[in-house]
Design a protein that fits this description.
By secondary structure, this protein is α+β, with helices and mostly antiparallel strands. The chain has 2 domains: 104 residues, Type 1 dockerin domain, CATH 1.10.1330.10; 72 residues, DNA Methylphosphotriester Repair Domain (3-Layer(aba) Sandwich). It is built from 5 helices and 7 strands. A hairpin with a 4-residue loop joins strand 4 and strand 5. Helix 2 runs antiparallel to helix 4. The protein is elongated, with a radius of gyration of 21 Å.
Length: 176
């Protein structure tokens, strides 16, 4: 009898509270109606496998900022940039989960889960070589490039100021 009564009470509470639950929006993983550093932390945990979300669920979609079908460290970085005011969620979607819209003319792309402004695939048309692990950028011929893991290498046609504004720092050796 107690179990039936508890079940009925929980069912009633669920039905009564249902209209008051907040739907998740892109980047707002914890449902606090705002993007915070806590959201970036949750996405980072999911990206390295410490937290699991079912693919296709609202929370998975809220984590997947770039809309590539995976939760990556790049998603966590983007949410952190939004949380601290360096970027804006409107650059990634309209307000509802599932209606992600990328900017009309994106200035870069993702390489190894990291957003690189001015990302180019053709290594002949780049201005800088970016290390997606250390977030440092180098000029062609820098001696630090010989130590860079090729899996962390990306080529960018962005300007120096664009890279710095997006969180990258110039190499201390070649001083671009």
């Amino acid at each position: 009898m107690k179990k039936i009564f508890s079940f009925i009470i929980s069912l009633i509470l669920t039905v009564v509270m249902l209209p008051f639950t907040n739907a998740l929006s892109l980047g707002d993983v914890d449902g606090t109606a705002g993007i915070t550093t806590a959201d970036a932390r949750l996405i980072l945990r999911a990206s390295i496998g410490l937290q699991r979300y079912a693919e296709g669920s609202d929370i998975f979609t809220a984590c997947d900022i770039d809309g590539d079908g995976t939760i990556s460290t790049g998603d966590a970085r983007t949410v952190l940039r939004i949380a601290i005011g360096l970027d804006h969620i409107d650059n990634y979607q309209s307000k509802d989960v599932g209606t992600k819209e990328q900017p009309a003319d994106p200035p870069g792309g993702y390489s190894h889960g990291v957003y690189v402004p001015g990302l180019v695939n053709d290594d002949a048309s780049y201005n800088y070589i970016v290390n997606t692990n250390t977030l440092k950028f180098h000029v062609r011929g820098c001696r630090a490039l010989s130590k860079m893991n090729s899996g962390n290498r990306a080529y960018s046609a962005a300007t120096r100021s664009e890279l710095v504004a997006d969180g990258f720092s110039p190499c201390g050796i070649c001083k671009p």
